[in-house]
Write a structure and sequence with these properties.
Blueprint lengths: L2 E5 L5 E5 L4 H10 L3 E2 L1 E5 L5 H12 L2 E5 L17 E5 L6 E2 L1 H4 L9 H8 L1 E5 L12 H9 L3 E5 L2 E5 L8 E3 L8 H11 L5 E5 L5 H12 L3 E3 L5 E5 L4 E2 L2 E3 L4 H13 L3 E5 L7 H10 L1 E6 L2 E6 L7 E3 L11 H8 L5 E5 L8 H8 L3 E5 L2 E5 L8 E3 L3 H13 L3 E5 L2 H4 L5 H7 L3 E5 L2
Parallel strand pairs: 2-17, 3-15, 4-16, 7-8, 11-12, 20-21, 24-25
Antiparallel strand pairs: 1-25, 1-26, 4-6, 5-6, 8-10, 9-10, 12-14, 13-14, 17-19, 18-19, 21-23, 22-23
The protein binds uridine-diphosphate-2(N-acetylglucosaminyl) butyric acid.
Length: 434
C-alpha cells in the first residue's frame, strides 16, 4: 500500500489540467452494455475505479480497449488520455461479482442496463462503506416499477424481466433526497422500455445530464435531464456512439481549494465553472478570488480566510464530495465555521484525522463546528475514503513539517495523478511505495 509524504508550506502556483469526470464516466461505461456496435468514450480518466469498471464490463462480455494518448496537447499540458472503445461481443453473462462490487460501489450501474438489454442481472449487494450506509433500495424500486422482479440470493440482488420493461410515471426520491446513480440506472433502463417513463424527483447532477446526452447520441429519446422531471420515450434499440465525458467538477473543486489553502494562484484548465456555482459562492465568501475565461478558471487566495456556514445538498447545492476538502480549508479560517452534511450524515471520518493535525473540530450529529486555528502540523494520518484523503492532502500541503498519508489507494480511485499534478505546481509531495 503506497503512502504520500507531504512537506507543507509551499504556495501552489501554475497551471493544472482537469481530467474527465470519474462519476460521469463510470455510469456511461455501464450504459454501453445496451448499445449495438462500438462506443468510443473520450476524456475517461485513468483511475483504479475505471479499471474496475473495465474489468467488470470484460466479465460481462465486452471488449474494452484503451487507445494510446493522442498527441492532442493543450499548451504545455500533458497529452490527453487515449479514447476508450467498448464493444459488446457476448451477451450471455449477467453477473457483477462481489469481488468487484466490493471495491467499487458504482458497479450497481450495470443493474439497469443488464435488465433492459439482457433481461437478467445478478449484482452483489454493495455493503456499507466508510461514508456510511449506502442502500440501493431506490434503484430496485424504480426498476420494479418498470416491471422487473427481484429477489435476494446469497448476498446478491437477482433481477429478471419477462418480455420488455414498461414505461410509467414514478417518484424516485428518497428520505435523503434524489439519488444520482439510482436516477441514472432507472433512466438508462427506461430508454429500452415500451412506452414513456417519467421520473419525478430525479437527480439534477451534471453527471446525470452527461449520461442522458450520451444515451441520446445512441438513439435514446430523453428530455428534461438536469431538472427533477425526466421524460424518456422508449426505443427498440441503441447504437454505439462517440462521446466526451464532462470535466471532473470534484477534481476541479479540490484544486480550487488547494490554491486557497496554500495562499496560492492556480490556473485550472478544461473545467466547467457552471457546475461549481455553489462551491464558488462559498469560496468567495471565505475570501478566495475565482475568475473565469472560457474553459479556464483562475483561483487566488487572500491570506485571511473568513469562516463560513455550509450545508451539503443535492445539485446545484454544495456537493458532499467537496465537504471534507472545504473543512480542511476552514480549519485555518479566522473564526468559527459550521458544516452540515445532508447527503451522507456519517461522512466525517476526516474530522479525527484533521484534529490529529492540530485542527479544532467538534462534531455534533451531522454537523461539524470548526474553530479556526493559526496553523496545522504535519502528522501520520490515514486515508479512509476518497474525498477524506483529498482533504488530508490539502491539510498536509499547508501544515508545518511532514505529513505521511497512508492507504493512498483510496485517492487513486478518484484523482488522476494527483501527486504529479500538485508537484508540477510547486507542492512538495512524493509517493512512497511499500
Ligand atoms: N440513497 C438511498 N437509497 C438508494 C440510493 C441512495 O437511501 O437506493 C441515499 C444515500 O444513502 C444518500 C442519498 O440517497 O443518503 C444520495 O445518494 P446517491 O444515490 O445520490 O449517491 P450515489 O449515486 O451512490 C454518487 C457518487 C458519490 C456522491 C453521491 C452524491 C458516483 C459513482 N458516486 O453516489 O460520489 O457522493 O452521488 O452526490 O457517482 C465520490 O466520488 O467520492 C462519491 C462517493
Amino acid at each position: 500500500m503506497d503512502s504520500f509524504l507531504i512537506r507543507g508550506g509551499n504556495r501552489l502556483k501554475g497551471t493544472v489540467q482537469i481530467s474527465g469526470s470519474k462519476n460521469s464516466a463510470l455510469p456511461i461505461m455501464a450504459a454501453c452494455l445496451m448499445a449495438e456496435g462500438k462506443s468510443t468514450l473520450k476524456g475517461v480518466p485513468r483511475l483504479s475505479d475505471i479499471d474496475s469498471m473495465s474489468k467488470l464490463l470484460g466479465e460481462l462480455g465486452c471488449h474494452v480497449y484503451r487507445h494510446e494518448p493522442a498527441d492532442d496537447r493543450d499548451g504545455d499540458g500533458p497529452a490527453l488520455n487515449g479514447p476508450l472503445d467498448i464493444v459488446v461481443t457476448d451477451e450471455r453473462m449477467c453477473e457483477a461479482r462481489y469481488e468487484i462490487v466490493r471495491t467499487m460501489r458504482a458497479s450497481i450501474c450495470v443493474l439497469g442496463p443488464l435488465l433492459a438489454k439482457r433481461k437478467r442481472a445478478i449484482v452483489s449487494i454493495p455493503g456499507g462503506c466508510a461514508i456510511g450506509d449506502r442502500p440501493v433500495d431506490l434503484h430496485v424500486r424504480g426498476l420494479q416499477k418498470l416491471g422487473a422482479t427481484f429477489r435476494t440470493e446469497n448476498g446478491n440482488i437477482v433481477g429478471e424481466v419477462h418480455g420488455r420493461l414498461r414505461g410509467c410515471r414514478m417518484y424516485l426520491g428518497g428520505a435523503q433526497g434524489p439519488t444520482v446513480l439510482g436516477t441514472i440506472n432507472v433512466m438508462s433502463a427506461a430508454t429500452l422500455a415500451e412506452g414513456e417513463t417519467v421520473l419525478v424527483g430525479a437527480a439534477c447532477e451534471p453527471e446525470v445530464v452527461d449520461c442522458a446526452n450520451m444515451l441520446n447520441k445512441m438513439g435514446a429519446r430523453i428530455r428534461g435531464q438536469g431538472t427533477p422531471e425526466i421524460h424518456i420515450e422508449g426505443v427498440e434499440s441503441l447504437v454505439g456512439c462517440e462521446h466526451r465525458v464532462i470535466p471532473d467538477r470534484i477534481e476541479c473543486g479540490t484544486f480550487m481549494l488547494a490554491a486557497a489553502i496554500t495562499n496560492g494562484e492556480l490556473e485550472l484548465k478544461r473545467c466547467n465553472l457552471d457546475h461549481l456555482i455553489a462551491v464558488t459562492d462559498r469560496l468567495e465568501e471565505v475570501g478566495v478570488r475565482v475568475e473565469r475565461e472560457n474553459g479556464t478558471v483562475f483561483v487566488s487566495s487572500a491570506r485571511r480566510l473568513n469562516p463560513v456556514e455550509m450545508t451539503t445538498q443535492p445539485y446545484p447545492g454544495f456537493p458532499t464530495d467537496l465537504q471534507a476538502q472545504l473543512m480542511a480549508l476552514l480549519c485555518l479560517a479566522d473564526g468559527m465555521s459550521v458544516i452540515t452534511e445532508r447527503i451522507f450524515p456519517d461522512r466525517f471520518l476526516h474530522v479525527g484525522e484533521l484534529n490529529r493535525m492540530g485542527a479544532r473540530i467538534r462534531k455534533e450529529g451531522a454537523t461539524a463546528v470548526i474553530q479556526g486555528v493559526k496553523e496545522l502540523q504535519g502528522a501520520n494520518v490515514m486515508a479512509s475514503d476518497l474525498r477524506a484523503s483529498a482533504a488530508l492532502v490539502l491539510a498536509g500541503l499547508v501544515a508545518r513539517g511532514t505529513t505521511r498519508l497512508d492507504r493512498v489507494y483510496h485517492i487513486d480511485r478518484g484523482y488522476e495523478k494527483i501527486e504529479e499534478k500538485l508537484a508540477a505546481v510547486g507542492a512538495d509531495i512524493e509517493r512512497v511505495k511499500e
